[in-house]
Amino acid sequence: MNASVLSGIRRLLRTGVFSNYGQAVLISVLTLVICGMRGGGLLLWLLFFFFMLWLLSRVIAIFRKKDSVKRVAIVTGIWLGCAVVVVVLHLGYAKTARQKADEALAHISAFHVEHGRYPKDLQESGFVQAPRPNKDDITYFYEDGKDDPSLFYPNTFAAFFVNTYDFKAQTWSTKD
Predict the structure, then answer these.
(1) For residues 72 and 15, which has the higher predicted lDDT (pLDDT)?
(2) Strand ranges of the sheet holding 139-141, from the earlier edge strand across to the other edge
């Protein structure tokens, strides 16, 4: 970008609608878009660290009479509201993903009881996943001669974690 475009953006952010709370709203919307995606919730912790640094700098500015308590309180409220929305989104994602995984588990268990063996795949168990792009991303595989099958689905809060089912202990656990 050339210097005149950057100076125009800076001027827009310092004046008009963005002068007091617009920056906080804009950054909160970007945070919602990025952190609100499945697997994006872990970024919220990173952004929270930067928010705490910002808050510390604003408290110091209040004591130096360079910022107002009202403005800092409103911006803090905007940020905390954004964080609450992201957490609620991820709680909903996690609940929906677990319900789908429990549904798949019920199909697998029913197949095992009825046939005395585990199904080779989810389709054989009778569980039907939604087509892409809304696919449930539940992964199941079983190899003949292996003791237990593997059933897992991606964690909705952290991108590199999965929730996996232990057929012996009959419990779900999160693994990285």
Answers:
(1) 72
(2) 139-141, 150-154, 162-166, 171-175
